[in-house]
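User: Assemble these into one structure.

Assistant: Restating your components, then the assembled model:
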Amino acid sequence: MQPGDPFSDPFTGEESGRSIIELRGISRSFGSQEVLRNVSLDIRAGETVCLIGESGCGKSVTMKIMASLMQPTAGNVLWNDVPIKDRTDEELVRDRLRFGYLFQGAALFDSLSVFENIAFGLRQNTTMSDKFLAELVTERLKDVGMSPASAHKMPSELSGGMRKRVGLARTLALMPDIILYDEPTTGLDPIMIDVINTLILKTRKRRPVTSVIVTHEMSTVRKVADRVIMFYPLSRLEPGQPQIVFEGTPEEAFASEDPQVSQFVYGEAGERMQELSLL
Amino acid sequence: MSSVPTPRKQSVVNAFGQLVIEFVQATGDLALFATSILRWLCRGLPRRSVVVECMYEVGVRSIPVVLITGMFIGMVLAVQGYQQFHLMRMETRMGAVINMALVAELGPVLAATMLAGRVGSAMAAQLGTMRVTEQIDALRALGANPIQYLVVPRFLSCFLLIPLLTVMADAIGVAGGWVFSTQVLGVDATYYWHYSTEYVAAWDVGAGILKSMFFGAAIALIACHRGFKCGAGAEGVGQAATSSFVLSFVVILVLDFFLGMFLNDIYWTLWPGPSSFV
């Protein structure tokens, strides 16, 4: 461990359970539209947290703020107890590499092949030889169940599930300590959803990582989550009600009697149908 | 059932104030964007392969369109000018007018317009698509700075290659004007070149090339900025591409005017004295 390096702690052993990402009173607006209001939460080392909630309630925004890919309008983000605003640009770039981010649409670079996409972060941040790079890319492709022959394909030649898996391979290439998955199973068929869920579990088994997953898929929550955090849209909150309406284990979420939670978890529209004048 | 609320009417003063605020915000944002490009330029160049690829797209692939427009504008000048000069029995002086117009104004402006249309719009659309599909966020997540990786190579390509494209547009325009004037309109080639060399100085060629560098920088800056600030969806990307071209074209003409005045002032300061065409 290097003294003064806020990310030098391994997220295993006795350190497990310590808060490594803290959001303190985060708010975020886009123009006049407020998406997050005074949100506070902790992500602890080694755990897998699922962020759930209706579309547009600010889950993805929260995750981007966690990774410092977006700045909050108000509030503080702390990585290992150190506010990110206290870091220099260089420190921020260096520490951000501890995060792996799987984007919703995989966000593969269109002009680069699968190989170049996976190798991108390594080329950018290391001086690895081409031979070693090729070995590593092949290994990462195998990790996500893809053949090395697909390395020369372009992203446009891949199916949705393959794109997600290449995105995951690219995310894993830099051996991140924290992996943020933004709707990793959206738009996939049930088999592919299970493939992605299994890959998330395999990734965690292979090496100790902290995972945060934004999802609408309850099968993902059941299968991979240690903890569930549920957001609620600001427009539907009661006055004074916090935006995070539930925090607990998946079992607690499924057993919850709070209609705000149970309706979402079991996919029941309830009074929404009347509100939307559909009945 | 609730009715759709009607939008509140804005007073003229409010609307004007809003417009001013938006203009100031946009200008400030563009200035900050330009500053960050300069900062990353000073920190070092991006990978060679990235720059070369960008230069190929901006430079090599723009050559055909620049050559075609350059040649035709030279010939058009000959066609349009001939009747007027012929009436005054001064057609031998056409070379001076055509070549001066080409090297000082039309060559640089046309090359820049072609670049803004062919390359600038494509840049804005490409970067806009990258923004919409979160590829720019992905770059940052993978430890690359989007300005250094995406903008600096494009800026360098436009800034460094537009002078070469301008020289090509100048040369082919001069050749087109000369061929049409002497071979089709029957102007004497000796006098055509005599008056051309008498009135078109190296300064004029140099001033045109210098102006083109400002145009290239403006095109890259505007196109990349539009792309980075692209709105959501296909509509946002389309708007980014269109506004990039429109704004670049306006800025090219405004810059051309002010740079033209400035360079003329410098010329007359360095070489004061009367100059007559006739």
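Chain A touches chain B through 23 residues (CB under 8 Å).
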